[in-house]
Amino acid sequence: MKVLVVGSGGREHAMAWKLAQSPKVQQVYVAPGNGGTGKDKNLVNVPITDAVALREWALDHGIGLTLVGPEAPLAGGIVDDFRAHGLRIFGPTKAAAQLESSKAFSKAFMHRHGIPTAAFETFTDAAMAHAYVERLGAPIVVKADGLAAGKGVVVAMTLAQAHEAIDFMLLDNTLGVAHNAGGARVVIEEFLQGEEASFMVLCDGKNVAALATSQDHKRLLDGDEGPNTGGMGAYSPAPVVTAEVHARAMREVILPTIRGMDKDGINYTGFLYAGLMIDPLGRIKTLEFNCRMGDPETQPILMRLKSDFLDVLLAATAQGLDTFELEWDRRVALGVVMAAANYPLPPRTGDAITGLPKDQDDAMVFHAGTAEQAGQIVSAGGRVLCVTALADSVKQAQQKAYQTASSIAFDGFQMRRDIGFRAIKT
Ligand code: AMP
Ligand code: GLY
């Protein structure tokens, strides 16, 4: 079977790398891919980003299965379109993808279906939003409604930060959020404390299969300081997700979400990612939904997947997940992101990347914002690489990931030095 992975990030590199290991896969194409998927001899980049042109290309090339990595094409309806043309594709429809593409939609959805989440209000009017945060006080969280690549959230520790966030989200849009119909909106919500985990499942429209657990590091700087990013590193499994928390997440969040979508007339297929906040008593609140796998969580998760990824996706596109057992490597995988200078603001690009090591079974450099220029790999985006290693403990996986990263350099790169710290007992 020929398969197509849509996207160009580290997540898509990991997906394509894993799919290429399946003996049933004849060729893996990545559209548009990046410098890393381009130089991998098992993968072929397809320089198409327009969804309609890609569908025509998939029809012409006999693509048997398409897997979509990022949210933007899902929110744009690529799944609806491919299916309407008889193509097999794994992901949520445009209607289902609203769980991610609109914070206002997902918060109202959670409220309606009794899914635990932070108390919130939605605003289009800046004056009313300012008055609301004055009334509630800080800390408080301000979220742009619309896709913002994980950057449209400000956890305001002071009222001044909250007011500033409201102005730049509602008035200036300096983050370049893709607004939903009706223009700029913000969701303002209660600040939650606890430890976060990324809880991801596959849904085939009827059955749900949980993926291995993971934890992301959303802040730019060590010790969870600095601005929110798309994610600076991740590891799997996440010890904060105990068996009890796992059961609770399925019972209180995942299953009511799938059932709630069904009740609202939307059949959910695809990955579903619930960002959870877990308090010290093991109680859960949902921070957000994503309608895709996480980036960088996918990189460590797929390094631990022992099942044939093509078989997983074939089961997931044939309502066969009820009889499918996912197998995981017992070891820990940990991925460290190397980001470009200035990220999460518009990054500096075009810097030569040196010292890239050879791929190994237990140490992989997944590319994200990279491109090839005259035989040289250069930076081409905010998050540039995710160096991911597999070892017997979090500490060892951390050491191996940082050791692998130590040979790599490009001008001005940013890298956290503490990925996995919450799982390492000192
Ligand atoms: P989101 O995209 O909604 O998951 O928000 C991005 C990040 O902001 C989350 O991973 C949290 O670290 C933080 N965050 C979001 N909502 C809250 C909240 N209500 N309380 C505390 N932190 C939050
Ligand atoms: N790493 C967080 C996300 O993919 O949304």
Give a short summary of the structure.
The chain has 426 residues and is of the alpha+beta class. The protein has 13 helices and 24 strands. The longest helix is centred in the middle third of the chain and has 21 residues, at 243-263.
Bulk shape: globular
Sequence stretches where pLDDT stays below 50 over 5 or more residues: none
Structure annotation, total helices:
13
User: Percent helix among the residues?
Assistant: 25-40%
Question: What's the multimeric state?
Answer: single chain
Q: Tell me about the biggest sheet?
A: 5 strands, parallel
| Rg measurement, Å | 20 Å
As a percent range, the share of strand residues is 25-35%
The small-molecule ligands in this entry are:
adenosine monophosphate, glycine
* Strand elements, count: 24
User: Structural class, from helix and strand content?
Assistant: alpha+beta
Q: Give the termini distance in whole angstroms.
A: 48 Å
Strand order of the largest sheet: 3-2-1-4-5
Mean pLDDT: 94
